[in-house]
Amino acid sequence: MAKLLVMYHNPPDPAAFDKYYNRTHVVVAKKLPGVRSYTISKGPIASPGGTSPYHLIAELTFDSMGAIQAALGSLEGQAAVADLANFASAGVTISMYEMRDA
Amino acid sequence: MAKLLVMYHNPPDPAAFDKYYNRTHVVVAKKLPGVRSYTISKGPIASPGGTSPYHLIAELTFDSMGAIQAALGSLEGQAAVADLANFASAGVTISMYEMRDA
Known about the structure:
homodimer
């Protein structure tokens, strides 16, 4: 299994971010081919230091790294990436990796 | 369900990091009370820009944020946190959050 981990930096207007994310971006992202699961953080993100640089963390799982690359290269993937410009101007950190049990 | 997401920054000696993580830290971290699953990234972490700031990403799930706090506050949790100084000198970003389906 492989993961697409998307960490959204703290936006200037969290309420506007949440509204756009939940009403629009989720709908766009769910169209990615090959998604096996799609979970997001609920409520505030805590860090040991007290403040987190991230407002929302999304996790999408796929069968493999190849499936992630195929998804991002598809028309649906290009639309999802392009949609980031509509709400994630504060920045986004994206990581993709194979997973295994520790 | 709640997640403890631990992102290890690129270490100066990746081979030494991997050896210590897999032989020692995993053993220590598995003793945390209340852990429901523990997965780690396998192989390199990719980012759209090409270079990832992270060498390894670990994901531990618990029943709730309270369970994470209890785990970190336990003797086993204190030992796991203290063990970071033995191999994660390049830095570590920790996030804790409740999860929900998107």
